Amino acid sequence: MDKKYSDIKKSSILGILGNLFLLIIKGIISFISGSKAMLADTFNSASDVISSYITYIGNKISSQKPDDDHNLGHGKAEYIYSLLISIIMFLLAFSVIKSSLISLIAKEKFKFSIWLIIVCIITIIVKFMLFLYTHKMYKKYNNILIKANSKDHFNDCIITTSNLISCLLGNFGFYFVDCIIGITIGLWIALNAIKIFIESYDVLMDKSLDEEKKAEVLSLIKNHPEVLKTNHFNSTPVGYQYQISCTIFVDGNLSTFESHEIANKLEKEIDKKFPEIYLTVIHVNPMKVEKKKK
Q: Which residue ranges form the domains of the chain, and what is each CATH number?
């Protein structure tokens, strides 16, 4: 477990440093050139720095063990931060879209520079390398925070490629494309902000395990030959994982030890098969079963 959090911490720090580097060079070039697409990309890098930092903080807090005040651990802390970040991202997106629209209406032109092209190429290379690294970490640990970062790095490659196209077209006099790309990137940031807000809100409001995954878990339980009936299935999110509980009915003629061994085996099997479930609690109730006459 320590290795897991150590690797996630490392990927978060790399994300912070990489995005901070891109934020600085994009900010300088967007200021010099006046490119709205590059300015939008700069704001996107700013939100990426914040997201990587939140991943670092969320990982640090969620790694803490449950205590007397937090019996289910500290997993939800990262979603509280994510909720706040989504609001900041949305405000940044609004600012980018507004600025790009004003420039589009006023028909403002940006100053083409070879550095616009160079920064775009550097960004694509850095982001693709970060994507490969975080995707590898996600495959290894199946962590939702790393998955989100990995997707974000890949999406940024697409965004900056669009920015690169607008820079090249600007060199041939198609300056309006720069503002359109700026608006598009702003809308992209806003869409991601909304997704993060909804995901964070759902966890904080204790949204249940999705129906498809719930059906898979119940199917595993019901297919156990000694389980006669199930009810009272509940799930509670704790960070990016769930705690679930369920009641099973077994043959009342079994001993207490035998019936609880069935529950123990099921709990271990569920926890092993479903990485999104970190704790399974199965209650056992006896059911009257008539013995077959010989």
A: 2-204 (1.20.1510.10), 211-287 (3.30.70.1350)
